[in-house]
Q: What sequence folds into this?
């Protein structure tokens, strides 16, 4: 049956029914969102893992990673041996006002020095404060979650297969 | 004293500083024409599209869309980036269909390389492209009624968007710019239990879609403002290259997913899951209604993809790439059916790690080009209804 205003009433009925249900709105500052481990919030750095290979800075499409380093000489430990040189990281900074959160730096890092953390509360009043130096990037590291377990149909993670192969080579039992 | 022939009025910020419009009333005419600037900063243009309307009373006698306020020179930027970096930029021109935008780039490069993509990746890509379509359409199903004065549907549409965005974020880490496609597959495999959570999200959205339908589709005020308003004819669609849901709402039986299948769409068409939604009227209401039809079909496709992914053998999600990826010399054109229409990338490579040229054909540019033809002869009150029903993203127009 059709009468004028039927569509309007139908719409109002939906609103009425929804009114009796619990609200879906998340009250953000009071209730923090639950973010998945893959969520791209902020980039964290383990300084010890960085070898200053510059891959991240070169691959970054926005050129927002700043790296300064110098070479240290380690004197020879044995008589007549050669001095070794080693890269030392002086500055590692990411400018999050330029960063496009594309994850390329994390992906290319061959030594797992960069990780994603779902933390997002680092808004600043001054844009210069968005350049996080290595100390601040290190702090984010404590908030990095463990990676999510993979689906049954997925191939095991590269790290696990490499570790298993290494164990097999050494004749140790594999899990 | 000479009487002014034309009055120039601006609505919205930035309306100042324009010259005389070439169309004037002329000394012999009794009425004056008024040039009305809509935008560039105007809520109805959701972004920085500017329309110069010439009005004769309430009637629009001419319309000129002024585009380019958001031009970023993306094609030039593509030329100095490798194929992974291009994905970062490519997913941003139409920020509501990021996944589909990425897809065109990787399909083009894969075709140049002659690369075979693993089955898991193909099905997961199809699934995500359709989820992306649902997200995009839900956005317009919420924002279009707002432009016509109905605020409530937005909240319902955004509740559904949030449900789907949660699963998208869990998988890709991003909420809008997924950055999940890679040449040869996808970035990472599924997290454990994701297929079930995705299935639940789809069921939840499907169960609540009738609410959106009840809220707005039967509404007499909404119908009065959209039915028989802004009818887009087949001739105009052919002349301007209009594509996507807008063209199908005028009965144009064309969809790349069926007519030039990519990913797993040929199988989905054969199984009857992928059906083409068509409407004949071609007015604002048909265009809006088609979004709902397409959402239903997309949810069906997502469920079919979920079933298939569950039954697929264990396997990789991507192809291992060389350290430096170079597309061989040559050119190709990869086009996909994006949520808003045909999105194409013409890729020319000279064997470098960056493309020599990458032309972007975006859907919104052509879809908005037809506006002057549709708007001419309408009244100002219908302008927003027609403009909103063309479903465009300004970033996609200006590139």
A:
């Amino acid at each position: 049956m059709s009468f004028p205003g039927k569509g309007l009433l139908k719409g109002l009925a939906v609103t009425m029914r929804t009114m009796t249900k619990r609200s879906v709105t998340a009250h953000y500052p009071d209730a923090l969102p639950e973010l998945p481990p893959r969520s791209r919030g902020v980039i964290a750095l383990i300084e010890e893992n960085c070898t200053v290979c510059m891959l991240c800075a070169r691959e970054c499409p926005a050129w927002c990673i700043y790296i300064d380093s110098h070479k240290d000489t380690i004197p020879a430990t044995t008589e007549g041996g050669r001095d070794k040189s080693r890269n030392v990281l002086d500055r590692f900074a990411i400018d999050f006002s330029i960063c496009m959160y594309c994850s390329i730096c994390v992906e290319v890092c061959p030594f797992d020095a960069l990780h994603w953390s779902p933390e997002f509360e680092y808004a600043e009043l001054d844009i210069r404060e968005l350049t996080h130096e290595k100390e601040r990037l290190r702090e984010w590291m404590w908030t990095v979650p463990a990676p999510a377990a993979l689906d049954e149909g997925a191939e095991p993670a590269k790290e696990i297969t490499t570790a298993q192969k290494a164990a097999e080579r050494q004749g140790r039992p594999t899990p | 004293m000479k009487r002014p022939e034309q009055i120039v009025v601006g609505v919205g910020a930035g309306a100042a500083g324009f010259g005389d419009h070439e169309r004037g009333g002329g000394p012999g005419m009794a009425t004056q024409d008024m040039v009305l600037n809509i935008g560039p900063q105007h809520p109805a243009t959701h972004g920085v599209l500017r329309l110069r309307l010439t009005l004769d009373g309430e009637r629009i006698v001419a319309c000129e869309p002024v585009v380019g306020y958001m031009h970023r020179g993306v094609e030039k930027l593509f030329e100095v980036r490798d194929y992974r970096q291009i994905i970062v930029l490519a997913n941003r021109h139409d920020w509501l269909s990021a996944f589909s935008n990425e897809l065109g780039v990787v399909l083009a490069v894969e075709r140049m390389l002659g690369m075979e993509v693993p089955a898991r990746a193909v099905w997961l890509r199809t699934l995500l492209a359709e989820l992306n379509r649902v997200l995009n359409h839900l956005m317009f199903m919420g924002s279009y009624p707002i432009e016509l004065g109905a605020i409530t549907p937005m909240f319902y549409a955004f509740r559904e968007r949030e449900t789907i965005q949660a699963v998208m974020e869990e998988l890709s880490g991003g909420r809008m710019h997924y950055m999940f496609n890679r040449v040869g597959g996808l970035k990472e495999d599924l997290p454990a239990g994701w297929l079930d959570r995705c299935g639940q999200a789809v069921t939840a959205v499907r169960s609540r879609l009738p609410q959106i339908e009840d809220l707005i589709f039967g509404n007499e005020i909404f119908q009065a403002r959209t039915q028989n308003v802004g009818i887009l004819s087949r001739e105009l669609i052919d002349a301007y290259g209009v594509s996507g849901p807008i063209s199908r709402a005028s009965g144009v039986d064309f969809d790349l997913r069926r007519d030039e299948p990519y990913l797993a769409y040929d199988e989905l068409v054969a199984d009857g899951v992928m059906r083409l939604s068509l409407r004949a009227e071609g007015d604002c209401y048909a265009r809006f209604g088609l979004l709902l039809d397409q959402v239903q079909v997309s949810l069906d496709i997502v469920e079919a993809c979920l079933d298939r992914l569950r039954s697929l053998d264990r396997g990789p999600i991507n192809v291992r790439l060389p350290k430096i990826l170079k597309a061989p010399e040559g050119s190709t054109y990869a086009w996909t059916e994006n949520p808003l229409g045909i999105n194409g990338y013409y890729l020319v490579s000279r064997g470098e790690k960056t493309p020599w040229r990458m032309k972007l054909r975006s859907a919104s540019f052509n879809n908005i080009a037809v506006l002057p033809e549709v708007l001419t002869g309408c009244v100002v009150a219908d302008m927003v209804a027609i403009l909103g029903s063309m479903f465009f993203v300004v970033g996609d127009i200006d590139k």
Remarks:
- The interface with chain B takes residues 4-8, 10-11, 13-15, 18, 24, 35-36, 38-40, 59, 61, 100-104, 107, 116, 148-155 of chain A (CB under 8 Å).
- The first strand of chain A starts at residue 42 and ends at 45.
